[in-house]
Amino acid sequence: MAMAKSAVISLTIMALFGASVAATTYTVGDNAGWTTQGKVDYYSWVDGKEFKVGDTLVFKYNNAMHDVHEVTEADYVECNAKASIKHHISGSDAITLNAPGIYYFICGIPGHCQAGQRLRIEVESDGSPGASPSAAPGQSPTTSSTSSGGSASTVPPGGGSGSTPPSSSSALLPYSLHTFLAAPGMLAVLLAGFA
Question: What keywords appear on the UniProt entry (predicted)?
Fold first, then answer.
């Protein structure tokens, strides 16, 4: 009996930490960062990358010269930052992708978005049972953002037309693995249940 409990605990820990390791952190624009200098091609930067639920985008930039706006598809196309969903200004913004869907980001400094400082990414489900479920039709996926001196917040990344995420064919748990791991003491509570 003790051996069975030990095996269940070991498998639980491996599953929890194995799934959490699967998330990837991407620095937008790689070494160049989020900028208009050097003519960074953010369309090409996205090519070959598979963004999954739980991944993090890090926008590194000179905050005296740039910012980051999460916007709707329509505002992305028009380079309109006036009605942004979320405005980031720290110069080192980490944005966690919490749900499948299409996300849009632009620089709100006049002329920068038009010069190519904008990013469109599509986020797929990570396929794990703890992944955040897709938003219902008409709703948007969500992101959490943390920047230096800031706190995490949840916002829709592209509400409006064209941003409804693809539907999920698998039944998912109501809480994401990241929510579970972030809750203080949840692992201890889980493990205490096996003692």
Answer: Copper, Glycoprotein, Membrane, Metal-binding, Signal, Transmembrane, Transmembrane helix
DSSP state of 116: T
User: Sign of dihedral through CA atoms 151, 68, 122, 20?
Assistant: negative
Which pLDDT belongs to residue 120?
98
CA distances from 108 to 53, 87, 111, 116, 142 (A): 26, 9, 8, 12, 21
For 35, what's the count of Cα atoms within 13 Å in the CB-facing half-sphere?
13
Q: First vs last Cα of the chain: how many Å apart?
A: 11
Across 17-65, the runs of DSSP E, i.e. the strands, are 25-27, 51-52, 56-60
Half-sphere exposure for 174 (CA within 13 Å, toward CB): 0
- Mean pLDDT by groups of 10 residues along the chain of 195 residues: 57 50 90 93 96 97 98 98 97 97 98 97 75 35 48 35 34 37 43 49
